[in-house]
Amino acid sequence: MNINATIIGQAITFAIxxxxxxxxxxxxxxxxxxxxxxxxxxxxxxxxxxxxELLNAETRVKEELRHVQLRATEIMNNAEKRSQQLVEEAKxxxxxxxxxxxxxxxxxxxxEVMQVKEKLRKEVAELAIKGAEQILKAEIDIKKHEKILxxxxxxx
Length: 156
Hints:
By secondary structure, the chain is mainly alpha-helical. It has helices spanning about 5-135, 140-155. It is rod-shaped. The model has no long low-confidence stretch (mean pLDDT about 85).
């Protein structure tokens, strides 16, 4: 066997192997590598987009939290104002009610004073009549004395 023939045979076999590999083995491997690179690139893009969305979501959450805190503060302030207003209204109603009770009591006291004065007038008149009866038992004209006593009674 000749070395040159062996080398030529090996070169031809190697060329066929290279041609076969380039024609049938290399394209599917190359496609798989390209698809894998594409999926990796898409994954990286999705991860980057996810990071962006996470940052945006964090910003929105912070903004919403700030709005909620402002709203809570506003609600607390409104509640405090309303409670103060209710207290003031209650004080005002209590003051009005107290004044009404006081004026009613004054009116009642005045009525009782008038009743007591009238009662005292009647008692004084009766005492005066009894006294006059005892003093004037001897006189006969009782009607005349009653008129005089009634005029005295009306003066009190």
